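look at this:
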Amino acid sequence: MTTDTQAATQTARDYYNSADADNFYFHIWGGEDIHVGLYEREGEPIADASRRTVERMAERAAPITSDTRVLDIGAGYGGAARLLAKTFGCRVSALNLAEAENERNRTMTREQGLGDKIEVIDGAFESMPFGDASFDLVWCQDAILHSGDRVGVLREVDRVLKPGGRFVFTDPMRTDEADPSDLGAILERIHLPDLGSPGFYLQQGAALGWTDEGFEAHADMLPRHYARVREELERNADRLDGLVSSGYIERMKKGLAHWVEGGKAGKLTWGIFLFRKPEGG
C-alpha cells in the first residue's frame, strides 16, 4: 500500500476502534448491521431496514448454496455473514480492519452457534490475506468509501474472485454530476478528497473485464437512513451517557445532517451493484 493509502486505512481503523464509535454504531446504528437500510415505512426500526438490505443483496447475488465460498470485506459486526451462513449454510470469511468490531463479531458469531461457518479476520481490503481465485462471492456494504485506494480494492476483489464469481456491494457515493468541492464537510469527516460514484464503479468494473449485472439505485434511502440514525441518536442520548462522549454525539449529529442535506440536494446517492467475473477471467 502507498503511504496515503496506509494513512487512510489507519485513520479508519483508529476511528472504528474508538470506544465512542464502537458504542455508537453498536447501540444506535443497527447492532449487527451498520450500513444503509431499505425502508418501507416511516419510523421503521433501523435494524429491520438494514436487515432488508442484506436480504435484497442476497437475492441479487443468487444462487448462494452451502458450497458457495463467501468473502465479506469491511464486515463490521458480521450481521450479513451470519445471515448468509444461517440461511444458506455457506462458509464466510469476514475481513475487517477494526479489532473492536471484530471482537463483537466473534462474540455474536459464537453466541449464535456459527463459529464453524464464519472466520473473522483482522485485515485491510487493500491487501487481502487470501490466495488468488479463492471465493465464489465477494460481498461489501458501505465500506469502500473509507479506502484511500478504491481502485486497488477492486483489483484485490478481482484477484480473489474465482472465474464466474460475483461481487455484490453497496457504497455511499456522490452522484456523477456532483463536484467534490460541494461535499467538503462530508469529505472532511472521512479524511479523503473524494467519494466514489456510480460511473466510477461501472467504469472500473468494465476496466477489470467484469460483466455489469445492473446497478440498483436507491438514492432516496441514503438521506432517509441518516435521518433515522440522527432521530435515534437524539432519542437515546440519555442511554449513551457514559458510553459515548458528548463531544462525539454533537459531532455525529452535525455529520449526519450533512449526509441528509447532501442526499436531499441530489449530490449523494446509494444503491446495490452486482458484477460478475468472466468464466475465463
Q: What stands out?
A: The domain at 3-276 is CATH 3.40.50.150 (Rossmann fold). The chain is about 45% helix and 20% strand.
